[in-house]
Fold this sequence. Notes:
4 helices; globular
Amino acid sequence: MWIREESPDDIDAIHDLVLAAFAGIGVPGEGRLEARTVDTLRADHALAVSLVADIDGRIAGHVAFSPARPSRDGDRWYVLGPIAVDPADQGHGIGAALVRAGLRILEEREANGCVVLGDPAYYARFGFRPDPLLTLPAAPDAAFQALRFTDAGSAGEVVLHAAFGHHEYD
């Protein structure tokens, strides 16, 4: 498996992968919503990091990181997601490898931190924890987590790109 930045040739495969990865989660239309999120972030040049897991020329996984902004001291923050792994490849560590690679890139770029909305048990392995100083409107408290890379005093309501259906990031 080779983890690399997405290329223009990967865009259709990423779209199809995201549709397939979320099709079986039991939420009608979820795959379309997640695929549209990635497509919108890309169209708006808001994909700060977009990595694929390439297995013999086949895209087996994808992770996106885009800017996020806490209302206080909010520079250099990112949100992880969506992340998608081909259903045939799930459970083999592809998602974890993509997350680790993306977080490493963010640290190298001197990010202050990264937030995620997802399963606390899954994301805790990467160091994400609930952070009482950061909030996301309407998000379940335990599911909204942060990973701080620096001691920046970032706090407040986190604003994401409009593709996520929250407040628009400007």
